[in-house]
Amino acid sequence: MSETITDAKVYTAIAWVMTLGIMPSIILVPLLLRRIQNGLINLKNKDSKWGDLFITSMFLGMIAAFLGMVFADIRSGLPGFIPIFVLLFSALLMAVCGLLIKKFHINWLENTNIYNLEEKKEYKQAVVDFISGMTDLYATANYKNILDGKIEN
């Protein structure tokens, strides 16, 4: 993970594997989004504790997937600890917001629906935003590596 890829064949192979690996989610999530949302809503309506537990476990699974990147450069000194500081500050900020919502009833901090998925135009925008959100960091990092000359042609 910490080595820079300089071989064009290796880079191409990695790019293809990542592209093919993400294609099912790019195709299936927009097609099944309403069904997934309805399933989560039904689960939460039947038993709110199980619904909350399920959503919390999905969130923790998503966070756990990124922990490897957070702790990957810890031996490099202060720059290696910056992702850990960001993680801890984010957790603290979430806790403070949760406390403000529960104790002081500051409702504007609650989750709100950004899109009205019943309208076709907003549904399409939600799909585009979802896909672009997955690819932005990867594209930015590769662009920076190409400009820095770390990837050879």
Fold blueprint:
Blueprint: H1 8-46, H2 48-71, H3 78-104, H4 120-147
Number of strands: 0
Order of helices and strands: HHHH
Q: What class, by secondary structure content? A: mainly alpha
Global Rg: 20 Å
Query: Residue-averaged pLDDT, rounded?
Result: 82
* Total tally of structural domains: 2
What would you say this structure looks like, in words?
77% of the residues lie in helices and 0% in strands. It is mostly helical and 153 residues long. The chain folds into 2 domains: 1-72 and 121-153, no CATH class; 75-112, no CATH class. Helix 1 runs antiparallel to helix 2 (48-71). The radius of gyration is 20 Å and the shape is globular. The relative contact order is 0.10. The mean pLDDT is 82.
In short:
The protein is an all-alpha fold and 153 residues long. It contains four helices and no strands.
List keywords for this structure.
mainly alpha; 4 helices; globular; 153 residues
